[in-house]
Write a structure and sequence with these properties.
This protein is α/β, with parallel strands linked by helices. It has helices at residues 23-29, 43-46, 48-59, 76-87, 99-113, 186-205, 211-233, 238-258, 262-274, 278-293, 298-307, 317-334, 351-358, 362-367, 374-383, and strands at 12-15, 35-40, 64-69, 92-97, 123-124, 134-138, 150-155, 160-165, 173-176. Helix 6 runs antiparallel to helix 7.
Length: 385
């Protein structure tokens, strides 16, 4: 309680069923009249692309659609999107989709207003100035990208993931409508949902956590752990979808303010080298990293177990903390996620290479409640094998 801390996020958050209908109005509040709409290329399958086009047609607003986003997007996609925004004389960027879509949209906005290429802005605080106004509309309950200052990309030339991190990437408005998540397939709901849980647990146990970030992170853990199973197995339950989306939002706020920990450092090489989807990589590694981190944050892990519904009365602190790992494993199993590193075809002899790459993802490792060496990273990969 004696530490100095700050708390930041999107400029404004709009949440609620049917709130997507406010999108044109919110664009107007930011002075926008010609938005670039960044979409996932697969959204046409769910009918959302058509819904977006019809919505703006009824609103009488001309738009430019950039719908080339794919999972684990390559860095070059941000440059391509910026060219589309400039060619269309767009004055605002709206990202509608999952984390990859919103990451691309945020990067496109700053690239359109600043000179240079996306590769020039990678790292921390390398964006020279503000970008176009932005509105982020998540269609999955996972990354929390609608309230964070990070965009993550694949560097195909280097076979690695890198992030663009700058306060200029914070969206001006995050607009969250649970109804948009109803059509998400169960397997995507599961992996993105555990990804959100990962953000919540990591930010809660981060050594840079503050009283405010701990509050939202812990609430996120409770919301996600109590609603994710229903969302996976009964995706039309709007109340559960709303609780899950709110949990993902809170987890994103926790992530933005306290950072993530070793799960992300170890998962990045899986995405960069082997194209393992981000949510799945985090899901596979989360229990193993939690188990490793237990001695560094016993009290917090005991609280995590309790808010996930595990009865801990009468248990020792060590026993209660260990129950958090079991609770997370049970949730993953109940959501039908059975993948392991072995099942993905990643050979044990690759672990030293993965561990070496993981150690270069330094910021999350610095937040980790227990110091991790390269040898420790290899053991964690073995635990997740």
């Amino acid at each position: 309680m004696n530490k100095i801390f700050s708390f930041t996020g999107a400029g404004k958050i709009v949440f609620g069923n049917g709130s997507f209908e406010q999108l044109a109005e919110q664009i107007g509040t930011l002075g926008g009249s010609k938005p670039l709409i960044v979409l996932d290329r697969n959204l046409s399958i769910t009918g959302l692309k058509e819904k977006v086009s019809d919505y703006f047609k009824k609103a009488g607003m001309g738009i430019v659609i950039f719908d080339k986003v794919e999972g684990e997007p390559p860095l070059e996609l941000a440059d391509e999107g910026a060219k589309a925004a400039a060619a269309g004389k767009c004055d605002i960027v709206v990202g509608i989709g999952g984390g990859s879509t919103m990451d691309v949209a945020k990067a496109v906005a700053v690239l359109t207003s600043n000179k240079g290429k996306a590769k020039d802005y990678l790292g921390l605080n390398n964006v020279p100035g503000p970008g176009l106004p932005t509105i982020m509309v998540p269609t999955t309950a996972g990354t929390g990208s609608e309230v964070t200052f990070t965009s993550v990309f694949i560097r195909k030339d280097l076979n690695k993931k890198e992030g663009m991190n700058s306060p200029y990437l914070y969206p001006d408005i995050a607009l969250l409508d649970p109804e948009l998540t109803l059509s998400i397939p169960s397997h995507v709901t599961a992996t993105t949902g555990v990804d959100a849980l990962c953000h919540a647990i990591e930010s809660y146990t981060s050594i840079t956590a503050s009283p405010m970030s701990e509050m939202v992170s812990l609430e996120a853990i409770e919301l996600i752990s109590s609603s994710l199973r229903t969302c996976v197995h009964n995706g039309t339950d709007l109340e559960a979808r709303g609780q899950m989306l709110l949990g993902s939002l809170y987890a994103g706020l926790g992530l933005a303010n306290a950072g993530v920990t070793a799960v992300h450092s170890l998962s990045y090489p899986l995405g960069g080298m082997y194209s393992v989807p981000h949510g799945l990589a985090n899901t596979i590694l989360l229990p193993a990293v939690m188990n490793f981190n237990l001695p560094g944050a016993l009290e917090k892990f005991a609280i995590i177990a309790e808010v996930m519904g595990v009865p801990i009365e009468g248990l020792s602190l060590n026993e209660a903390a260990g129950m958090a790992v079991g609770a997370v494993e049970d949730l993953i199993d109940d959501c039908g996620i059975y993948e392991t590193l072995e099942a993905l075809g990643i050979a044990e002899e690759d672990f030293p290479k993965l561990a070496k790459a993981a150690m270069t993802v330094a910021r999350p490792l610095a937040n980790n409640p227990r110091k991790i060496t390269e040898a420790d990273a290899i053991e964690i990969y073995n635990d997740a094998y």
